[in-house]
Amino acid sequence: MTNTYLRKLTLALLAVAPLLLATPSKASAYADPGTGAFVYQAAYAAFLGGTYYLRRFLDRIWGKRK
């Protein structure tokens, strides 16, 4: 059983090793200045939407307050 496991592990490593060697070692990425604004806008919208739905959920549980 151990011999079969080691053989499968060795074959898996031999299959993955060329893929790891073929990938670039250093990747340079570029993010334009609008990306940060988009992230802030998405976080703000998620917060406002979450509070809206939380309030609707709580109103259903406790009933509408007048």
Task: Explain this structure.
The protein has 66 residues and is mainly alpha-helical. 76% of the residues lie in helices and 0% in strands. It has a domain at 34-66. It is built from two helices and no strands. The longest helix is centred in the last third of the chain and has 29 residues, at 34-62. The model has no long low-confidence stretch (mean pLDDT 83).
In short:
This protein is an all-alpha fold and 66 residues long.
Unreliable runs, pLDDT <50, ≥5 residues? none
Radius of gyration: 26 Å
Assess the beta-strand content as a share of residues: under 5%
Question: H/E element string?
Answer: HH
Could you give the topology of this structure?
Blueprint: H1 2-22, H2 34-62
Features:
66 residues; elongated; 2 helices; 0% strand; mainly alpha
